[in-house]
Write a structure and sequence with these properties.
The structure is a homodimer. Chain A is α+β, with helices and mostly antiparallel strands. Chain A has a four-stranded mixed β-sheet.
Chain lengths: ~120, ~120
């Protein structure tokens, strides 16, 4: 292990591959996580995203699930010139917390795409 | 009201028709409206309903949409012996209130049926 890097200077070219692997984002850019910001801000960033990609996935968990539905309704019915529709809706459960505080939280994924 | 029942004992047979017409329920019995009761009470009445009919529709609007998702998850994952699944999910908007207080409220309908 004594300085093998210097001797293998040609082997360095392999490193960038690792670097590329590292920043694997937990979610693609067209996934929008709904939180406590104003609903309209999520609606607008969804529309911006829809201009670049075919679909956008609204994700929410727990109490803010209803806000995700609000955002989906605003995109499909108010903004967006009636060009988008809800493609699919999935609900699931996630475990949140650690140790004794683990509890199940419901999640929703609303996929919105061009009509 | 002086004992007309006894004299019109034959005419009574027409009345039941009116009585049958009157209680036109706004929703079939397998629609369960989620409100502010404990989630488990909705889960249990859904399971009772599922024992009698093929499907049950959980309906909720506004803030309690997340509770409807919770109920659906409890039925499909915890209770129900893994016999039920989410068949479809619809989201929509409803107008609530009158006059100046009209506002749009998001709604959800989760249909649960036997696997």
């Amino acid at each position: 292990m004594s300085k093998p890097n210097i001797s293998k200077s040609t082997g360095e070219s392999a490193k960038p591959q690792e670097v590329v692997k590292k920043p694997v984002r937990a979610s693609p850019p067209n996934h929008i996580f709904i939180g406590k910001k104003p609903i309209m801000s999520y609606a607008l960033s969804s529309l911006i995203q829809l201009a670049q990609s075919d679909e956008v996935v609204l994700k929410a968990r727990g109490m803010v699930i209803s806000r995700a539905v609000d955002v989906a309704q605003i995109i499909t019915k108010k903004l967006g010139n009636n060009a988008y529709e809800v493609k699919s809706i999935k609900i699931d459960t996630e475990k949140v917390g650690t140790g004794e505080n683990v509890r199940n939280v419901s999640t929703i994924e609303i996929t919105i795409g061009r009509k």
